[in-house]
Amino acid sequence: MASGDEFCAVCTEPLSWTGFGPCGHKEACSKCIARLRLIQRNNKCVYCQQESPKVFITRHMGDYTNRLNPTDFESLNGERNDLKLSYFPEMEAYFDDAKHYEEIRSLCGFTHPILQDRSLVFRSLNELRDHIEHTHHRSFCDLCLKDRQVFVSEQILYNPSELQTHEDRGDVTGPLANCNFKGHPRCQFCRIRFYDSNELFRHMETTHEHCFLCRRREPKKFVYYDDYDELHEHFCSAHHCCQFQSCIDQHFIVFETEHELRAHTVKDHADELPKLSGAQRRTMLTIPLDRGAYSGPGLTDADATGGRGRGPPRPGP
Ligand SMILES: [Zn+2]
Ligand SMILES: [Zn+2]
Ligand SMILES: [Zn+2]
Ligand SMILES: [Zn+2]
Ligand SMILES: [Zn+2]
Ligand SMILES: [Zn+2]
């Protein structure tokens, strides 16, 4: 097959430069291999998943692509390899083309295509960001910088209104416009945004509260309460909450049915019951009938955020 007919298995761009480890599969482009190895810390072949401790990067020419035998990989050892290849240590990659080696190296630095002056060198992300903000009046999205698994030079720059749209609803144009990205969801309690619904879900589950009784009844409905006080109010209004102070202090002593609460009261508070007045005792043993259990709206919009009586969508795969 001619080289022009083949596409990178990762980014689907036409393959002009490829790379492979000892397994010899040349399905990914050199850029994707660099991204996988340097950013995602993944050294596996994209095709057969075999670990490739070292890779050889060369021009993709179909069946005529330069080969390296599995045994040749063993003799590759850093800068002074016998084959006179350019060596990129962080990537554990050997290039047979010095120019392409430079291209890939520059892709990995603190640089961006918006810079017209190619001679500008930045030693840190902050230096690059400051320069772009002051000179080009564009900024990166901090969440994307942190979690979007691409090179800094592949990160998208926005003006203030584009950044707002990016955060709220997703991009109108560019590489993020045609994928599932619909903005960075926000926790409605803390007002903090998260990279995606998985991150938001993790936050809601660890920082806020949910009712285990409602969750048991409807496992696919995600309703959250800001803190335990709010959850306690819900327990008291929607379920059968033990009203003894010791149980209130202990948290989560709440029951699905009146019958269960009564059983708990008789079993765990037998000593305390005689000390109560008749009226108090009646309160403890008489539970108001269903005052209408809370039924918050379910979440339909994939990017609706968590919040009072609302939950983030179930995390995707
Ligand atoms: Zn690719
Ligand atoms: Zn392979
Ligand atoms: Zn972003
Ligand atoms: Zn929060
Ligand atoms: Zn509940
Ligand atoms: Zn109790």
Automatic annotation (TrEMBL):
Keyword Metal-binding: yes
Record organism: Polytomella parva
Disordered as annotated region, ranges: 290-317
An MF annotation (GO) of this entry: ubiquitin protein ligase activity
Any GO BP annotation: protein ubiquitination
Pfam families attached to this UniProt entry: zf-C2H2_13, zf-C3HC4_3
Keywords (A to Z) from UniProt: Metal-binding, Zinc, Zinc-finger
Domain RING-type: residue ranges: 8-49
Top-level taxon of the source organism: Eukaryota
Protein name in UniProt: RING-type domain-containing protein
